[in-house]
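Troubleshooting: if your tokenizer reports a length mismatch, compare your output against this known-good record of 171 residues.
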Amino acid sequence: MDAGLLAVLSDTERLLVAETEPAALDALDEDEVVALHTRVRRARTKYVGQYRRSAAARVPQQGGRGLARPKNTRARQKAEVMEEALARVSRRLALLADEAAEQLKAERLEMAQTARSGTGPDAAQAGTSSPARSVSSGRTGDRALRSPASEKRRADTRAAGARRQAKRDAR
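Known-good structure output:
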């Protein structure tokens, strides 16, 4: 990364960017990379928002977006650094997710072949249950107790209730 861009960052911001270097990312597992991705994404969103708000506030004073742009270089540079860091973490996360998907696929194929041939520990159950049940043991997808879809439905229901209550209270 360009030393000039790193110079605009504070110490904590520099540490966050240092965590996104390839050597540091190689030491992390998938869950840790997901957590880092969230932190970097939040930082990127913060600096992009600050850049846009300050640029928009300067437009009436300067007389145009082009004239307001040079005054906002530091915020733009911070946003650029965080964007590059997010790109590095996203690439690593995609790579780890692909590896995990391949590994899961191989495990499922192996379990299905074992169940079909009747040689594995699930061989006694293979004839009594459906193949889908023997391959996946827990709830997955929309049937999971805590899936993103169910969390969204719960939040939507709570928000609707809050809106109804606020409407009643306003009377």
